[in-house]
Amino acid sequence: MAFSLHPLIDNGLTKGSDSFPGGKLHCHCSSKPVEVTIKGNVLHNHACGCSQCWKPKGALFSIVAVVPVDNVEVTANGDKLEIVNKDATILRHACKDCGVHLYGRIEKDHAFKGLDFVHVELSDEKGWQEPQFAAFVSSLIEQGFDPAKMGDVRAKLKSIGLESYDALSPPLMDALATFAAEKAGVKGKL
Ligand SMILES: N[C@@H](CCC(=O)N[C@@H](CS)C(=O)NCC(=O)O)C(=O)O
Ligand SMILES: [Zn+2]
Ligand SMILES: [Zn+2]
Known about the structure:
Blueprint: E1 22-26, E2 35-39, E3 43-48, E4 62-68, E5 72-76, E6 81-83, E7 91-95, E8 101-105, E9 115-118, E10 133-135, H1 139-142, H2 150-160, E11 163-164, H3 170-184
Parallel strand pairs: 3-10, 10-11
Antiparallel strand pairs: 1-2, 2-5, 3-4, 4-9, 6-7, 7-8
Bound molecules: glutathione and zinc ion (2 copies).
Enzyme class: lyase
Keywords: Lyase, Metal-binding, Zinc
Pathway: One-carbon metabolism; formaldehyde degradation; formate from formaldehyde (glutathione route): step 1/3
């Protein structure tokens, strides 16, 4: 295969542990790395092909999951963090020195407010939930990927056991739509 989806999934999925206690994420700095401590396991782990999520060099996808904000704590060198784009829904906190995103937080009124977005590959611990699906797959094209190779990408994802979606998975899209219906005051009216 001429492309790498992501090193965590190129050779198949490694199942997570149901009793995983959590662990620490580190940025890539060799000196004074930013450290984030996470209690418990992550939820909704997935591959994301969008242009905004942090990807390791050479990977087409990001691997990103959510975790309740109360389970996330910056435990070292937080002074190196800066928000990548203050206008984005997800305020991605990245290390100023190495560029790695440590956590993304939603502050505005949103269905996913209360959940932080994190990359479990930044941890040495084993047992994090394995990716469940692939999101924003067609977004690769917007970043310059050859549209003719999208069939190969989707086939590779499928062979690993990941369903491809061009936005989020149906349960997450339903959660976003439920929030929108509540906001519009139309929930249950149809
Ligand atoms: N096609 C767009 C999609 C971006 C997008 O909607 N990303 C999703 C998945 S991470 C999102 O929730 N974005 C909100 C945000 O980044 O703040 C891109 O590649 O930039
Ligand atoms: Zn760093
Ligand atoms: Zn994304």
